[in-house]
Every structure is written in C-alpha cells, then in structure tokens.
C-alpha cells in the first residue's frame, strides 16, 4: 500500500518518466528495491519494460510497479539484432514496440533511428551509421505477418520506409487507431481531427497513467534544431527519449487488446493496413502491398457483416487545394463533419496535390463527391 500511495503522489506531481523509473522494479516473481545510484549510472544504456504482474499472466498492474530492467542496444550492424527478428518465422512470432525518428520524417525527410522494443531489450537501429544495409536487414521483419509492430500513428513512419528504403510496413497495431475504436465501442464520439497524441495516451490511467514531461523538452529542442536526430554520437537524452517512445508500447498493446471486441479487432487490423499505405501513393494502386485483412469467419457466422473499408486517393488539380481546405480550414472541416471517414491532407510534408480518404466505401464515396463539388463550383 505504501508503494501505491507513493506512486499516486508522484503521478499527481507530474514527474517525468526518467525520474520515476529509477525508484522501483519488480519482476514476475521477485520484488526488490534497486539502488538509485547504480541505476543512475546505467540509465543511458538501460531502461524499464513493464511486465504482467506476478502470478497473473496476461494481467497488467501499475506499469512501473511491475517492470524489468533491460539493456538498450545501439545497433549499427545487422548481427546486433535478434535472429528471430532478422529471420521471421511462424515458429517464433514476435510482438514488438516500434517507432521511427528523423528529420522532418516523411518521404523526403531523413529517417535517422528505428526503435524496437522487445520484452527483454530495446534496440535503437541507427540508420545514419548503419545506412541502407542495416535498414534493409530489417525489411523482412517490418513486412512480415509473423512480427506484430505496435506503433502510435504509423503513417509518416511507413511513408519514410517506403520511399527511402522500399519497405512496405505491414501487420501493425496502431495504438492511436485502437484508442479511437475503443472510444467508439464504448459509445463515445469524437470530433473530426481529434486524434490522441502518444503523450496523452500514456497519461490516460486506463492505458498507462504515466507523465511524459521530457517529450515536451525534446519538442523544444527540435524546434531549435530540426536536425537533432541526425547528431552523432547519440547523446544520453537522445538514447533515453528514443527508448521512452517505445518501451511502454507492449504494455499499452495488452491493455487495448483486452478491451477490443472481435469486430473492433478486425477494424484495427484493416485500419492499420490502410494507414500504412496512406501516404505511400503510387501508380499501381498498392498492388504490391499485402492484402487487406478479410472479415473473420466468426463475425460472419454471428451475422455481423461489416461494410468493406478502403483507402481512396483524390487527385487535386493545381490551384484547387484551397477550395477543399477553405478559409481557416472551414471547408475541409465541414466535409469531415458530413462524412464518417478519415480525411487526410499531406500539408507541408506532402504530397501537396492529393487527399487521402479512409473509411467504409459509402462514406468514402460521399466525401469524394463533396470535395469534387467544391473544386468544380469554387
């Protein structure tokens, strides 16, 4: 009870992940206090991965009450990565936390680091030092159905991987999508563009209840120096921040999977596939990408036959994007409010002449018709 009271007081005080994670660690069957001086000395290359609570397989308790100290590996060669990751197989299926950092990350902005969180280690794949050879070694796993990648908002990460390395990110569980589906499942409606940030998801006590103060510090640094992630050698702040962006994803993954029903799980898989493709537009209509997940037989036998969900790309003629967006975004906002579909515009990162629409076929076609009308009559 004393530990719980201390944890509640710390959350109220809003202490950062870094400061809080030096105080307590519990394994599956062991409880031990860890000397803070020893931990402080190793934190630049170590971190904590939350685990299921002792004696309750699959049940998760406070994320920093039941945790495991794991190494952070800075990877510059493929041989430093686990073989089960490099050579995916049905016999050794994996669930990993995944994220990318870069300079204005998109099809043009440089991808600098890929973070991979396993239950027993965090790997920071240094794309600057390791180059094409290292990133290409990760391609089988990133495209594999045997490796589930848990990520928060995969769209720009997928775009950078596709255009810079020819990698088609596949089999993701996007926690941003999962959160939205749980909200819908529980009867709560969100307004258009009301996407939860990773910081807000971490802070939500239903999923983690962790204050991520340092994220804002890094955002300030990024505004001051956009090439922050390109710097080498990696500073302690860079290593710690990169690890923090993935180390809770496996914990959140179990939390959301406990809440989602069969229908929402199917939608999560479909939306994840469509989000991976979203900004990866090409001339062959995504023919080389993995198929969109089929409707599970269980849903059909229960009489639930959901409408197919698709991604549509609307090409916008020169000078017409303003007609779609409108003054202060009023026009595109009205389209989003009229249609139950995700409508995404490339913005400053591009592509500047396309609108991406994701949702049920009927709603997507409705959104397309409204936007074509705005281009025609404006």
From TrEMBL:
<dbReference type="InterPro" id="IPR036612">
    <property type="entry name" value="KH_dom_type_1_sf"/>
</dbReference>
<protein>
    <recommendedName>
        <fullName>3'-5' exonuclease domain-containing protein</fullName>
    </recommendedName>
</protein>
<dbReference type="InterPro" id="IPR012337">
    <property type="entry name" value="RNaseH-like_sf"/>
</dbReference>
<dbReference type="InterPro" id="IPR002562">
    <property type="entry name" value="3'-5'_exonuclease_dom"/>
</dbReference>
<dbReference type="InterPro" id="IPR004087">
    <property type="entry name" value="KH_dom"/>
</dbReference>
<dbReference type="Pfam" id="PF00013">
    <property type="entry name" value="KH_1"/>
</dbReference>
<keyword id="KW-0694">RNA-binding</keyword>
<dbReference type="GO" id="GO:0008408">
    <property type="term" value="F:3'-5' exonuclease activity"/>
</dbReference>
<dbReference type="GO" id="GO:0008298">
    <property type="term" value="P:intracellular mRNA localization"/>
</dbReference>
<dbReference type="InterPro" id="IPR036397">
    <property type="entry name" value="RNaseH_sf"/>
</dbReference>
<dbReference type="GO" id="GO:0003729">
    <property type="term" value="F:mRNA binding"/>
</dbReference>
<dbReference type="Pfam" id="PF01612">
    <property type="entry name" value="DNA_pol_A_exo1"/>
</dbReference>
<dbReference type="InterPro" id="IPR004088">
    <property type="entry name" value="KH_dom_type_1"/>
</dbReference>
<feature type="domain" description="K Homology">
    <location>
        <begin position="308"/>
        <end position="376"/>
    </location>
</feature>
<feature type="domain" description="3'-5' exonuclease">
    <location>
        <begin position="72"/>
        <end position="261"/>
    </location>
</feature>
<dbReference type="GO" id="GO:0006139">
    <property type="term" value="P:nucleobase-containing compound metabolic process"/>
</dbReference>
């Amino acid at each position: 009870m004393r530990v719980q009271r201390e944890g509640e007081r710390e959350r109220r005080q809003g202490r950062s992940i870094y400061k809080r994670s030096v105080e307590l660690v519990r394994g599956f069957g062991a409880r031990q206090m860890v000397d803070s001086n020893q931990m402080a000395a190793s934190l630049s290359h170590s971190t904590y991965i939350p685990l299921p609570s002792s004696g309750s397989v699959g049940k998760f308790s406070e994320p920093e009450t039941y945790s495991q100290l794991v190494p952070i590996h800075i990877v510059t060669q493929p041989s430093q990565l686990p073989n089960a990751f490099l050579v995916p197989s049905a016999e050794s299926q994996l669930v990993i936390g995944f994220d990318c950092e870069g300079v204005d990350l998109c099809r043009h902005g440089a991808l600098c680091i890929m973070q991979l969180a396993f239950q027993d280690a965090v790997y920071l794949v240094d794309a600057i030092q390791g180059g094409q050879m290292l990133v290409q070694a990760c391609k089988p796993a990133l495209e594999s159905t045997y490796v589930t990648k848990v990520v928060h908002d995969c769209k720009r990460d997928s775009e950078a991987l596709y255009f810079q390395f020819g990698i088609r990110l596949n089999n993701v569980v996007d926690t941003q999508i999962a959160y939205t589906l749980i909200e819908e499942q529980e009867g709560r409606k969100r307004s258009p563009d009301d996407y939860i940030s990773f910081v807000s998801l971490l802070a939500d006590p239903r999923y983690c209840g962790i204050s991520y103060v340092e994220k804002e510090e890094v955002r300030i640094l990024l505004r001051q120096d956009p090439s922050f992630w390109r710097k080498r050698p990696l500073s302690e702040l860079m290593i710690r921040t990169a690890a923090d962006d993935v180390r809770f994803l496996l914990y959140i993954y179990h939390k959301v999977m406990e809440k989602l029903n069969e229908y929402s799980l199917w939608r999560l898989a479909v939306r994840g596939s469509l989000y991976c493709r979203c900004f990866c537009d090409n001339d062959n209509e995504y023919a080389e990408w993995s198929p969109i997940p089929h409707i599970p037989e269980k849903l059909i036998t229960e009489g639930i036959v959901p409408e197919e969900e698709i991604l549509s790309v609307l090409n916008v003629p020169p000078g017409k994007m303003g007609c779609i967006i409108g003054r202060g975004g009023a026009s595109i906002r009205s389209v989003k409010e009229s249609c139950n579909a995700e409508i995404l515009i490339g913005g400053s990162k591009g592509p500047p002449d396309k609108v991406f629409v994701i949702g049920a076929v009927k709603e997507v076609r409705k959104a397309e018709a409204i936007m074509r009308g705005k281009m025609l009559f404006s």
